[in-house]
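Hi there,

I know you've been waiting on this one. I reran it after we fixed the sequence typo, so this is the corrected version. Both the input and the resulting structure follow.
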Amino acid sequence: MQKNITYRQQDIIENITQALQYISYYHSADFIKAISAAHEREKNIPAKNALAQVLISSKMSATGKRPICQDTGIVNVFVEVGMNVSWDADMSLEDMINEGVRRAYTFENNPLRASVVSDPLFSRKNTKDNTPAVIYTSIVPGNRLSFTIAAKGAGSENKAKFTILNPNESLEEWVLKTIPTMGAGWCPPGIIGIGVGGTADKAMLMAKHSLMEPIDIDEIKAKKDPSDIEKMRINLYEKINGLGIGAQGLGGSTTVLDVKIEDYPTHAASLPVAMIANCTATRHVHFTIDENGDSTLPEVDMSLYPEIEMDVSSFKKVNLDGLTRESMNDWQIGQTLLISGTIITGRDAAHKRLKDIIESNGELPANVDFKNKFIYYVGPVDAVGDEVIGPAGPTTSTRMDKYSEMMFEKLGIMGMIGKAERGQNTVDAIKKHKGTYLIAVGGAAYLISKAIKSARVLAFDDLGMEAIHEFTVKDMPVTVAVDNEGQNIHDVFQNIEIKALKV
């Protein structure tokens, strides 16, 4: 029998804090290798540009120790507690973990965005420190205390899917039909996790847990005698990438970097299937606390990053100040622009408040003027040191679709900047008002923040990261996704012919 180990409260808190800070700015080695390989083989120019921005921004985050993505996630913790463990603590294990989360997200040198709201149905008040975490505890033999920690962004989490198939139905067919319905809001390329069997809750848990495993699809493909599940992984990996969705939904050869599958015995009449994605800001780490209260996180090898510089010579420079709708006539979908000038920000809560003001015939805040401006869907991380703003990548634009006509008709916007596809009502509004929809790269938040030269809060300061800001930007890279004639680069999601894919 292994000896009993006593774990101290402070050690657990400190290790949780350290791990969350670590994953906020370091991509794992397997991810860097996979993204680099995807960039190397990509032939689609908009997608290749997007992958380059992800790699450049990732390296900048690792060097500057600032978040990879402005959505620093909701914390997921899988903890294994040995049966021969004792505690020197006056807090519960859950409370220790949450104290580590609180300290990580309020760390002075690298504060992380607080995104968790309490009372999810009504007040949705921000907890200010990203607590509580979502915690899963397993009791195991021995004396170890091991953690797998992830910070899961909402863009990918919101695309989670679940079904219960009949036992004789095809899992592969369901996956291939479902992936296009997820759009680009999950910021591909990333990892698809699938849980099969058990019950509904067990399948979802397995799908989430599978995302914590290393990217190893190339090793699986090289095996002489792969298992049935490994053969399914390979088949899904190849067929999902064959859909042509690509990086940020811009087309191309890489939509997924790996497909993971975990299974569990289930009822004879049932086949529960869950699917969850990890995005280009995939953040997770595994560590074990030793008897001295220490843990070792993976060393970071900066040489893994390829030497990449974006060739901006072909990018069109645009001054947003004084821009007319007519001057956007020659913008083409898939074209990369470098925009400079003034943009106004706004997300879900700000749009809702603007709608309430307009419908009550109230007055907008005196200094908020959207007329002939682009609105940027972003909730930035707070600035530190001499930063103008912290990482400030786009949020999923689809959530703002119901406000599009209002923003054009009532507030006079010129266009929008965000990520992922838009609904048909928004595409119609863009065409009607001769606007444009531009996408910034999800997963390139730190790179984007360096293009922001000034920032100030204009209104709704009580909304925190969802307040309305005014940004002055210089050469911020964006891609034309919907032009002023309503042509849409994301029509790939409507045009994929699933029936042509042989499962």
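Quick highlight: Confidence is low (pLDDT under 50) at residues 497-503.

Best,
R. S.
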